[in-house]
Amino acid sequence: MSVTSVTEKWVDEAAALTRPSRVVWCDGSKIEYDALVEEMLRDGTLLPLNPTTYPNCYLHRSHPQDVARTEQLTFICTCERDDAGLTNNWMAPAEAKARAGGFLRGAMQDRPMYVIPYLMGPAGSSMSRVGLMVTDSAYVVASMHIMTRVGPVALQHMRSEDDLVFGLHSLGDLSPDRRLILHFPEEKLIWSVGSGYGGNALLGKKCHSLRIGSWQARREGWLAEHMLIIGVEDPEGRVAYLAAAMPSASGKTNLAMVESRLPGWRVWTVGDDIAWMHVDASGQLRATNPERGFFGVAPNTSPKTNANAITMVRSNTIFTNVALTPSREPWWEGLTAEPPAGLMDWQGRPWQPGSGPAAHPNSRFTVLAQQCPSMAPNWEDPQGVPISGLIFGSRRSQVIPLVFEAFDWTHGVFLGSAMSTETTAAITGKVGVVRRDPMAMLPFCGYNMADYFAHWLAVGRRLARPPRIFRVNWFRRDGDGRFLWPGYSENVRILKWMVERIRGAARAEETPVGWIPAPGALDTSGLDVTPERLRQALHCDAQEWLAALDDLGEFYRQFGPRLPAPIAQALAETQRRFRA
Ligand code: GTP
Ligand code: SPV
Ligand code: MN
Questions:
Q1: Residue with the nearest Cα to atom 8 of ligand 2?
Q2: CA 117 to ligand 2 centroid distance, Å
Q3: What percent of the chain has pLDDT over 90?
């Protein structure tokens, strides 16, 4: 059977189930994108923005009940429940298909079905992977054009006739009661029905590159991670590449595009959400960004917090669920100090101060990476970039210091596995609730989390020079609820310390949880933070930690004997150090 007949057979079956009015094969061309935009402007799916100040920019308003990923409706459907593990929702494959099949049967009646061949990763890279998704949403097609490499380039990268991931997506009726996001890693298959938003619908992103991707990565010996990738350039022009895992809406896009406050230092963007990392023949960890664009959080993006992002979204950008000014410009909380008069909110209603946020807290921009001024010139290098440091960051008002460094790879894997974070608007549900989110992969690991920890340990054993591992928390607060650390552009100071640690130059003090910057080791030149506040930000409190470690022990217990022994030992060792 030829490549085309495998894919055509699958597309025929998808069409037999969903009964579209016609089937449209996408080629990824600009003509195709422009035609989709025209059609969406006609039917109101897109609204034009100010053509002078925001050329080729559009606003999409999603269904008010479809504004973020819905984790409670997201399932890993493996034959064995244990293969999904207790941190994932699980459904038996047959039951999953029966339930979603009911929502999908005839779901595309009166609508075309678009067939999108897409490539995740740079063209010409052995790390890149192919997907084929079908959808009845023109907005999803246009978004896939920006976020992935659509067209013949995709199928050219298949290594065998079934070397691809299939994705079936339909808007359904957009009701959360008839919404399911299903992953069948054993069949390299995704079914998503009932949502048109973000990670639920742009199947190349979380469903393929992380959930199915992590499953494949474990079997094939690589890592698929919820990580940004950056190059940090020092005044001598040397670049060190780092990757950083942080939970949803917790600072990846911001850190990926940091504008340095330190003379001579500069940060280059390689990716802002997903890293695929392989061990090369010399034992070096190398990372590629599977995506082609950014689906970034709008609120709090401003010339002060992320000037690069503000520049890149001034043209050729699709905004979703932001507010609209009377001059048809997008607006969101934090963009300007004061909201402009006469705003329309994210649902198109006149907005009054005091009536809640004008932009949805999970409103987003979708834009090509090449529009970002800080994009690294080598961001699409087929070999990927060599990684010399990894960062685990989360959102914690208390307990977790601003920055510290793991003792070694195993200890770093322990610190990543121990991450907890306060929830954000990127997922439906309560915001600000502390939950476990190991390596920022709780919603994205497509298999048993205990096996995932073991896989990380196993990858470490194959590395000639394992990257240093760091833990950060930009979000620690003082007694009055104010952030102790200014964050954003100032985070380059933390990056500088990390790069100097990697090169053996920066001083650090040992604590029970790792190495913390020694007094004076962080470059604070020109920084408006008192030494006392910096001390508080870096402080490691034994009582707080011992309580947190007890809680971590509870979390680990659910994995039973499947939890790798080195992780359990690292926990016991940390408790012992605090008690000593
Ligand atoms: P996803 O795209 O959902 O995976 O998230 P992300 O990690 O890329 O999120 P992003 O960088 O867009 O984070 C957005 C949120 O984090 C906003 O509320 C920002 O204000 C906040 N944020 C980012 N960096 C900092 C920082 O250094 N300090 C503080 N206090 N907040 C930050
Ligand atoms: C996240 O939630 O981590 C995102 C946004 O990056 S979404 O693509 O909707 O998953
Ligand atoms: Mn993300």
A1: 199
A2: 21
A3: 97
